Amino acid sequence: MSTQHQITRPFTIGTSSDFNAHVPYHTHFHYEIYYFHSGKVNYLINDRIHVLEPGDLLLMHGMTLHSAHVDPSVEYHRSTLHFDPFYFKHFIQPPFAADLLEPFEKLKNVKLQLQGEEQAEVEACFLKLKELYALPDSFSQQRFQARLLDLLILINQLCEKPLKDKPTFPSSKERHVQDIISYLESHYSEDITLEGIQASLHLSKFYLSKTFKEVTGNTIFQFLMLRRIYQAKIELIDGNQPITDIGYEVGFKHPSHFSRAFKLHTSLTPEQYRKQHQLHPIDLNKL
Question: CA-to-CA distance for 35 and 181, rounded, in angstroms?
Fold first, then answer.
């Protein structure tokens, strides 16, 4: 089941050394900076699977469907920072500077592989941000925002370097799972069967099912359902298309099935979700 996380503060930051072998796929409106310290993790972001290595920095655009599938036999250590892009753009971003949210909005979701001084600088930045975040006084909060600004400037600098866009995988299993995800991304609005995937990828449907579950923690059809629900959320938020049409467009054959599935995964009907989350123009003069 996917979850839409509700983050009520402009920023949240945390470091964790525990693990959860099955973290549900989830989305949130905040942008996310995720730094991987150690462990053994397959991180799924929309239609890409990333096999993480220490020093990897993930930048995730708002409403991105993502999940970490963690190997519980290896200690998992990561730091995350969530921030409201609207708040950052209008209250922290200097008016004279270039748009510091470009890496999130143009690259959407990207992995930076840090080493050496860059890695040490980002780790030190997260450590100081966490320290300031825990202090209640106004000066510490102002210093937190200044440090966040510095981190975003650094990220923009790192993103100017050529990015390795071609994923590398430690084994054929992860590569085959990426092939399945790419197939689902291209065909999720259609009637999908294991036999169809088998014919397209020239691999046994039994191997495909077993390997997908092993690498991602979900079955192929659980992932397919989440992908369809995710796309429906985007359509409901960002347009006025009839809800029945949205259901058909994302792959549901019957409106009743779409409504039941959507409510099961979000605890809201499509109508309720649209009413709560649909985007409306904001008048900055009223802030």
Answer: 24
